[in-house]
Design goal:
This protein has about 280 residues and is an all-alpha fold. Helices cover about 80% and strands about 0% of the residues.
Length: about 280
């Protein structure tokens, strides 16, 4: 009889660091991640429609040499409509973070089942944080466009103002991912979870902002740069948005280990990782 191929892994091949864990999951659970990305993209459709419609309106206004006040009004209404659309998108993020959590803990996962379980469990809180992010985005967009009207008169002051608007969006956007990562682990109130997310963002600000610029910052930039690059951004989000969720999940769990789990939930410390000296860990992967 032909010998079956060896499928077990030795303990030296299992992930011992967060970086190794990220690579391991990305390589061996690619299908699950892409499936979660496709499901998440369904919740991005309202925001995508808002972008396509108002970008067409703005393009037409530019082509017809409409006054800047008319273009500003279009951007203002587009930003207002984006607020509930971003809320809907974050409902989808509730499902994606459930998948990301299970994968980062090396638990068994069926993407669709885990995704909709996360929706059922955390959609209300995800919708709430989504509205907060939506208002922050609208404030940054509309405020920056308004300040651009006065940029030539006072470039330094207006530049500082635009920088502060972008900073608050980076802050709120970053804390939203800590918020979503907590929701799948702890049974805290909305306010307590939001407070913790804010503190984590401040304590880990360089890494938090760097991760946000990586995901979803690159996609946001592609949409803002031009209509052509926006289609590239759509493709990235369609197939790879859950990879960003996985990165955020793994990093957030590292932060939680230091500030929450070590004292209150020791069973969660380094979950998904295998100590190098532990030879009793399971061999199947």
């Amino acid at each position: 009889m032909k010998k079956a191929p060896e499928t077990d892994f030795s303990t030296t091949q299992l992930p011992h660091t967060r970086w190794e864990l990220l690579i391991d999951v990305a390589l061996h659970q690619t299908g699950s991640l892409i499936s979660a990305s496709l499901l998440l993209s369904l919740f991005a459709l309202p925001l995508l429609c808002d972008y396509l419609i108002f970008s067409a309106f703005v393009g037409t206004a530019y082509a017809n040499a409409s006054p800047m006040s008319s273009i500003f009004a279009l951007c203002f209404y587009g930003a207002l409509i984006a607020i509930p659309c971003i809320g809907i998108l974050f409902v989808g993020y509730a499902g994606a973070y459930e998948v990301g959590q299970r994968l980062s803990f090396l638990d068994g996962v069926l993407s669709s089942v885990s995704f909709f379980y996360g929706l059922k469990k955390n959609w209300r809180s995800a919708l709430g944080i989504g509205f907060i992010v939506g208002m922050s985005f609208a404030f940054a967009l509309v405020g920056s466009l308004y300040l651009l009207f006065f940029y030539q008169a006072s470039p330094i002051v207006m530049g500082i103002g635009i920088g502060l608007l972008l900073f608050q969006f980076l802050l709120v956007g970053s804390l939203s991912h800590y918020f979503l990562a907590q929701e799948g682990l702890y049974q805290n109130s909305f306010g307590a979870t939001l407070k913790n997310a804010f503190l984590f963002t401040l304590m880990k600000m360089p890494c938090s902002f760097g991760l946000f610029i990586l995901s979803p910052g690159i996609v946001i930039f592609l949409f803002a740069f031009s209509n052509i690059t926006a289609y590239v951004g759509m493709g990235l989000f369609l197939f790879f948005s859950s990879f960003g969720v996985l990165i955020w999940s793994i990093y957030a769990h590292k932060v939680f280990d230091s500030y929450i789990n070590a004292e209150h939930y020791p069973g969660l410390v380094n979950k998904g990782l295998y100590p190098k000296e532990d030879e009793s860990c399971p061999k199947s992967h």
